[in-house]
Design brief:
The protein is an alpha+beta fold. It has a single domain, classed as OB fold (Dihydrolipoamide Acetyltransferase, E2P), CATH 2.40.50. Helices cover 16% and strands 45% of the residues. It contains 4 helices and 11 strands; from the N terminus they run H-E-E-E-E-E-H-E-E-E-E-E-E-H-H. It has a 6-stranded mixed sheet with strand order 8-1-2-11-10-9. The protein has a 5-stranded mixed sheet with strand order 3-6-7-5-4. The longest helix has 9 residues.
């Protein structure tokens, strides 16, 4: 019976919206994505954390925009014409995440997603669900729930 369960799990497929942050291809489960917007001017929030870029007005709803580069301790390369706000929903919360560019939607079997390597920088490993090997590059799959519910965010956004 265990083999049947394992076989059933290996056929489960997930779709990921993929995007670049610096030169890293990352993805989030498509079920967490509300929409992707061209870069929108945001309003600074005084005395907010470094990872809070500001807030935007999205059809009457105030959305906090986070800088994923700061959360993941990545080099900041600035904004460009391809920068986008990735609007995410999780646990009844809506939040924006600043990304460098949108790539594609990728379908991956659960069995083909490898665990995050053990040598990922300490403290950040909780943000990653795994790695998917694509023909030309690796896709780093982010855990949206963990990103949006980490202690630093919930403390500073409360």
């Amino acid at each position: 019976m265990k083999n049947n369960t394992k076989n059933e799990l290996s056929t489960i497929e997930h779709e990921y919206v993929t995007f670049y942050v610096n030169d890293i291809l990352m993805g989030v489960n498509i079920q967490n994505v509300q929409e992707i917007n061209r870069f929108m001017k945001f309003t600074d929030v005084p005395q907010s954390s470094d990872f809070v870029k500001g807030v935007i007005n999205l059809r009457g709803q105030v959305i906090t925009v986070l800088d994923i580069k700061v959360i993941l301790n990545l080099e900041h390369s600035g904004l460009n014409a391809n920068s986008r706000n990735l609007i995410l929903n999780t646990n009844s919360e809506t939040i924006g995440m600043l990304i460098d560019s949108v790539s594609d939607v990728v379908t991956a079997s659960a069995a083909d997603i490898d665990e995050t390597p053990a040598n990922v920088s300490e403290g950040n490993e909780r943000f990653y669900q795994g790695i998917y090997k694509m023909p030309d590059e690796l896709l780093v799959i982010l855990d949206v729930d963990e990103l949006l519910n980490c202690d630093e965010l919930t403390t500073n956004l409360a």
